[in-house]
Amino acid sequence: MKNPNITPKLILFHPFHKPAPGSSTGIFSYLASHHRLLILLFISCFTFASLLTFLYSTSTSSSTFTDSSHTTDTFTATTTTTTIAAAATTTPLPLPVVDALIHYAANTNATGRMIESDIRAVANILRRRGPCNLLVFGLSVETPLWIALNSGGRTVFLDENQYYIAYLEPRHPGLEAYDVTYTTRVRDLQELLSTARATRATDCRPIQHLLFSECRLAVNDLPNHLYDVDWDMILVDGPSGWMQTSPGRTASIFSSAVMARSRRDGGKTEVLVHDYQFGLEKTCAHEFLCEENRIEESSTESLGHFIIQSGGPRDAFCFNATDDGVNIGRLRARTRAHPLITKVRSRRWERR
């Protein structure tokens, strides 16, 4: 017996036709699928690029802010430090300190020291000009004193004895000293002056760059940067000159005059010649530093003080230049020994 609630159902089957390779229907389906993949790939790349741009912008902004803050802090710190340093370096040493330094320097028993009147003359000028650029020809027992009195400035020493420089450097940290090779000799003074006078407008002219000078009296083997310094004060206390074969101070006095005349800022240079009472020092000072530039009030018998204005004639050192010959026989031998000569000889060091 059939159930009346059951309704007959009809199922229809449609045949599936697989597109043949190369047919238009397959091609269109393939292109549609490939197109969707390209769109999806493009959207993914665009999203990734946007994310990278956002991250880079955030990182750059943070870095810029950090660098800006660091630069501001650095600038503030640098400005503060510079201001403090400038204030410190422009403050001269108290007068009681200067007097104490001079007292102990003048009363030492060291060989070859300056007399007290010369030390005070140099100290007074240095106190007035300092802190400044100070160039000293010759190392001596007064070397620490000049460094102390020029506190805040630059003090450079030149000496012909490399062993003495090596001896002092560990004992005075911060000492700036260079060894110099001199080709002059005391016995050749007349020949050197004659050559300098003959080439006054060429090789030995008063205004020139010493580094490139062809003059026999020029000190041109220093570090290059020293020739670019405008020296405010030059103390000639070397090289040695106690024998006829010693270098003498002809080259150092000539080079001091050229440095003073050739400075670029138009300023004045104070040149002091120690042992001024001796014939060679006085003759060379009159020849290149000139008597009209000597300051009588601050000079002593053994210390000549000259103030040299930069510029001037390019073919003459002095306005009242003379070509008088020099009588070598009248030049007295120097007796001021180098402060380390005994120590050097005891160690069998050979002086250059």
TrEMBL record:
<keyword id="KW-1133">Transmembrane helix</keyword>
<feature type="transmembrane region" description="Helical">
    <location>
        <begin position="37"/>
        <end position="56"/>
    </location>
</feature>
<dbReference type="Pfam" id="PF21729">
    <property type="entry name" value="IRX15_IRX15L_GXM"/>
</dbReference>
<dbReference type="GO" id="GO:0000139">
    <property type="term" value="C:Golgi membrane"/>
</dbReference>
<dbReference type="InterPro" id="IPR006514">
    <property type="entry name" value="IRX15/GXM/AGM"/>
</dbReference>
<keyword id="KW-0472">Membrane</keyword>
<protein>
    <submittedName>
        <fullName>Glucuronoxylan 4-O-methyltransferase-like protein (DUF579)</fullName>
    </submittedName>
</protein>
<keyword id="KW-0812">Transmembrane</keyword>
<dbReference type="GO" id="GO:0045492">
    <property type="term" value="P:xylan biosynthetic process"/>
</dbReference>
